[in-house]
Design brief:
The chain is built from two helices and four strands. The chain has a two-stranded antiparallel ribbon with strand order 1-2. The two termini are 24 Å apart.
């Protein structure tokens, strides 16, 4: 999770510092990220995607241009 959060922050900063030009207008672009850490064989793909999506919407509702980590509960996939 630590590495994923670090990489997401690097990407967020890169997007924020990029210059996007539309004619004579410089546009400010930002990005929000939802980040989770899961061992894929312990979780259904749908569960992981829903967790990340929930984190992303939390980031957007927190003012955007941020990273929101989300921890998954105990594995739900049956062996």
């Amino acid at each position: 999770m630590k590495n994923a959060l670090h990489r997401a922050e690097q990407l967020r900063q890169a997007v924020e510092s990029a210059r996007v030009v539309d004619g004579e207008t410089i546009l400010q672009v930002t990005a929000s990220f939802g980040v989770t850490s899961a061992i894929s064989f312990h979780y259904e793909t749908e569960t992981v995607i829903r967790a990340i999506d929930a984190a992303l919407y939390r980031a957007k509702n927190s003012g955007r241009n941020c990273i929101v980590p989300i921890e998954l509960d105990a594995p739900r996939r049956e062996s």
